[in-house]
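User: Hey, my collaborator sent me this sequence without any context and asked if I could get a structure. I don't really work with proteins. Can you help?
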Amino acid sequence: MQSKDENKQTKHIDDDEEDLEELSFGKTEKASAAAQLNLSARLSKDSGDQKKSSSFKEVWRLVKVARPEAKVLGVAFVFLLVSSSISMAVPFSVGKILDMSTSADAPKDLLFGLDPATFYLGLGGILTLGAAANYGRVILLRIVGERIVTRLRSQLFRNTFIQNAEFFDANRVGDLISRLGSDTIIVGKSITQNLSDGLRSFISGVAGITLMGYVSLKLSSILAIMFPPIAVGAFFYGRAIRNLSRRIQKNLGTLTKIAEERLGNVRTSQAFAGERQEVHRYNRQTRKIFELGKREAYISATFFSFSGWMGNMTLIATLYVGGRMVQSGTISVGELTSFLMYTAYAGSSVFGLSGFYSELMKGVGAASRLFELQDRRPTISPTVGSKVLSAHGDIAFDAVSFSYPTRPAVSIFSELSFTIASGTNVAIVAPSGAGKSTVASLLMRFYVPTSGGIKIDGVDIATMNTKQLRRKIGYVGQEPVLFSGTIAENIAYGKPRAARAEVVNAARRANCTFIGDFPDGLETHVGARGTQLSGGQKQRIAIARALLKAPDILILDEATSALDAESETLVNEALGKLMKGSITTISIAHRLSTISRSDVIICIGSDGKVAEMGPYATLSANPNGAFTKLMNQQLKGAGAEQGDESEAEKSEEALMAEQQDAARHEAEQDEARKLTVEQERLR
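Assistant: No problem. I've predicted the 3D structure and written it out in structure-token form, which is a compact way to encode the shape of the chain:
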């Protein structure tokens, strides 16, 4: 009976799964192609999967990071020798003082041939010199450490910033921030303060063991039994700490990514009452880091407690044997005291070397992540190529095929070819996901075509200096990005040395009249990502930024799609001013008002090729053309959103007529809005 019930239950579950599959979206061929990812641009050294043979090379490279500070580090090393030598002389002096105090044959009024007052004053002066040397060592190493961290961060940020779009598609911003932040601090500490502490422990340990052998070889042989177990334990401990350090840094990068993304979109999260799930997401990641930290704590506690226990057992053995040697007269009380003090110095040095090794392995784990980022070279160099004096001229896409590098199996363009005449206003239209914005990305060389080429005035842009080419191109996006700072700083972003009069003129040409409503005018802070401004205000600042740049090519990517009527009118006025002259304008749009005022329309089909190209009047007159069908689909979608079922039943001829009427109506509305705005200004 039980088996029958189980079979029925299993069958019921299978039926439910089949129902869910029927209700869910079926996978298309495009989805199967998109599943074939290429993440070769992703930074891979996130875990301890490296070869063991590379550890020494990484350690040596880590040390070489401090090469520019070699002179200062040399002075710090001299201070280290002075302070360590003075410290190691103390046990010897204490032993001799005890022997002189307890020996009946030694003169009571002399210490090392000096009267007690002179000897103790001299000893105090020497110890003061050691303290001063230690002070100088610490100060120099801290300054050098901060200098190295500053230089590392600057180099890494520059190298990160010049990477191409493929790199940022494949890597998480939070992980990059973690590498620039916490990883550089770990590396800086490991090659300055930690290296100094390690050298001090090494010098003290070698000096202590040597002087222990000088005092008594028999007692020194007892201590030899503790070194092999500690050395073996230190090797395995250091390797475990290195791997854990890499994993902790990887998870810290993920934590930074979560915090950066969620706090950057906190309004959206609050709008959907998603505070609890975001806190849960963050806490889940912190628990992962906590578990790794707890594991590191267990490993460290095991190693250091074992090392301490071995040291204490050895000390007991030394006291036992040393006490019998004092009784037999083999060594004196002072020599045993000196030996025990040297034992303590050597023991602390062993612990210091263990700590140095573990911190060094942490530094190696962090450095491997930094070196990978530092060694990466962009596939599109921003500074290599011929000088670009002008971007005027015809723009030609010649049999361009393209797939995004992270999804090479998904074809966006297939032998796409068209020519944009210099100084014309061209609109690019296409179905959603057909690659309208990709045209702009390829023209600005964010990506490289898989085949074919793009030419400006007959010159392939692949041979041009990318940075200089981008200086000749103005870009206004659908969602304009403003940086934290003032309005003036954002307008002058493309031309940082622009005069104040140029900034004001650009703002006026972009219809940024709202600036006069702010108490601080152009010095008004826009907030993070421009949150203190409305969508229309941000859009007009973005247009002013493009105006100030005086570009030869202007790309408008859905520049007015999210604006209200009044804002759209003002933005269109600004765009109209921008389009005048010899500027080649490429508008990526779906609004009829934008499309209809273009000189030429390029309609890209879902197959990644040009489906139709020509003036608006010509394309709209063809009822069977790709452009007309695309516009009809948009009108049907608008009608469906408004609940007008009869709209979808109209004939193609009627829809085309309505399309033209709608375009004329929008043009008339634009003129009326302009007149209203002008009247308001005159008032």
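In plain terms: Confidence is low (pLDDT under 50) at residues 46-53, 640-656, 679-683. You can pass these tokens on to your collaborator as they are.
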